[in-house]
Amino acid sequence: MKKYVLISSVFVCFILLIVLIVTNKKSIDKKFITVDTLYSFLYNENQKIEIEIYINDDEFPLLEKNIYNDFKLHDEKYKKNLSLELVDVTYSHSEMLNNEYFHKYIFKFKMPNLTSDYSIEEAILDISFMNNNKISLKIGDLSLMYIESESEIKWISIDSKKNDPSDLQISQIRIELEQIITNIDTISIYPESNLKYSYIGNTLIIDLLKYDLVCNYIPIIIKTKDKQIYTISNHRFLIEYNILENAGKRLNIYDFN
Fold this sequence. Notes:
The chain is mostly beta strands. It contains two helices and 18 strands. A five-stranded antiparallel beta sheet has the order 6-7-3-1-18. It is globular and about 55 Å long.
């Protein structure tokens, strides 16, 4: 009899423990995080606009496209407003912040039809869900660049470096070219930027400005004095696995209940 009571007690405790775990998991406050980023994209039909979002709830169905109603990008005063068409959502990895796991997802949107450059400084992404919930997330600066006619840069290897491992951005790009591009007028990664450069042999070294934004997935645009344009479409120069720890004031944290 005592043995039966002991087994029953253990079973009841086990059930109570499971209920406690499940209840506690359901009570976790959902949080979204974005990091201010330089979202610069060179227009072409195959290029997607990719925006990175973190969430602390690994059961929230961000990968299911049918939970979303629409997406809009705008500035704070709605002087600029851009509707986005979702193509896909992919999981990237998880990071720790304040002893809590956050899971990174990449939202991929169709490139809108463009006939000129389009930019939004301090852009905000509105996400509307089918259940009528909505969240607005600061994402950083958006730049979509339209170039009517260009030639793809032919390169052998491409690399980048940081001045400081804790920086949010890469500081230098190194491109080993098949053939040196001469007579360069400007090099840019977004409209109206003019970056310093040098050559070591056939390796083009480009020094980036200090953006104080995440900057590692960008295009390269080279314009020559004889009006030639050479480009590299968006290239992911670096994949960050602990950006949340280093982002500081560039973190945007939102409660979502």
